[in-house]
Amino acid sequence: MATTERRPILLDFEKPLAELESRILQIRALAEDNDVDVSAQIQQLESRAQQLRQEIFTSLTPAQRIQVARHPRRPSTLDYIQAISDEWIELHGDRRSGKDDLALVGGIARFHGHSVVMLGHQKGRDTKDNVARNFGMASPGGYRKAMRLMEHANRFKMPIFTFIDTPGAWAGLEAEQLGQGEAIAYNLREMFRLDSPIICTVIGEGGSGGALGIGVGDRLIMFEHSVYTVASPEACAAILWKDASRASQAAEALKITAWDLKNLGILDHLLPEPIGGAHANPIKAAEGLETALLENLEALLEISPEQRRQERYRKFRQIGVFSEAA
Fold first, then answer.
1. Which CATH number fits domain 64-316: 3.30.450.30, 3.40.50.300, 3.30.365.10, 3.90.226.10?
2. What DSSP string runs through 260-285?
3. CA-angle at 64, arms to 47 and 280, nearest 5°
4. How many angstroms separate the first and last alpha carbons of the chain?
């Protein structure tokens, strides 16, 4: 992961914290220029800044969590793969279209002595890269590539790790012509029959069928500030109220945060993030993900493939089940 110093990208709710940190820097500079000892005052302000940062990131609204999940510098699939794997060989193409979808990447890796297949959505770091990767919105060829890699993993008894980070599948005319719905539906069906352990992690934005296309697994892990939703709050607000500006209200109603999904019994493992979000300390975020993946993988390897398939099926059949009071 890149560690070069860059100008921070501030979210709206981070501005009070940024102003306080800027004030600390100004006071420190003035003190050095005038040879004045203000260490006690600076320590007090830094303590206040730390407290404010804690308060902000422990009380985010669903709409604010979406902003964190979409942060341009949030670690991507390739960032995490490079951080947690000992070896990584990227594989390309779906063997059908003759193209390689850059919005969905995958390959073979070594993970704590295990040969595994890792794949996931990949967003860009700047405008040019985002255009090349279609902002993480995979085409039918991307989902067929993912299925090809998962079938390879199943054939050679390799565990599968998927990393979800997309606003949704590509909804262009060409995608529909190439069978976007069929490609995603095929993945949903086939992932249920695989013998390999499958661990899915929402690392940022899990949107609609684009997320589900690689989201059928034995375990679902979500980072604390990631989101998982049937439709983006903006799309939901436009559909329900014909007003996309009511996205914050839609975000509340959709129950899209990791905490919501944990309470609903959909999420298996909620992964805490460093204060300030995963982009504030990517190395620490990757270490937490590596530990969670290893723990869940070891547990899944202790049970038979048949039992894993049965539990996977039961897990998804239970989603949405409810009881009505008399």
1. 3.90.226.10
2. HHHHTT--SEEE---TT-GGG-HHHH
3. 50
4. 55
Count of C-beta atoms within a 10 Å radius of residue 43: 11
pLDDT tens digits, 58-109: 888 999 999 999 999 999 999 999 999 999 999 999 998 888 999 999 999 9
Q: What DSSP designation does 217 have?
A: -
**pLDDT tens track for 259-293:** 999 999 999 999 999 988 999 899 999 999 999 99
How far apart, in whole angstroms, are the C-alpha atoms of residue 142 and residue 175? 11
Q: Where are the domains of the chain?
A: 11-53, 64-316
Cα dihedral sign, 271-275-82-93: positive
Alpha-carbon distance of 83 to 102, in angstroms, equals 20
The count of C-alpha atoms lying within 13 angstroms of the C-alpha of 62, restricted to the half-sphere facing its C-beta, is: 22
Q: Please tell me the pTM assigned to this model.
A: 0.88
Q: How many CB atoms lie within 10 A of CB 95?
A: 10
- 218 and 306 Cβ atoms separated by less than 8 Å: no
Within its chain, how far is the Cα of 30 from the centroid?
A: 42
Instruction: Please state, in angstroms and rounded to a whole number, the distance separating the CA atoms of residues 284 and 80.
Output: 11
Two tokens, residue 143: 């989902």
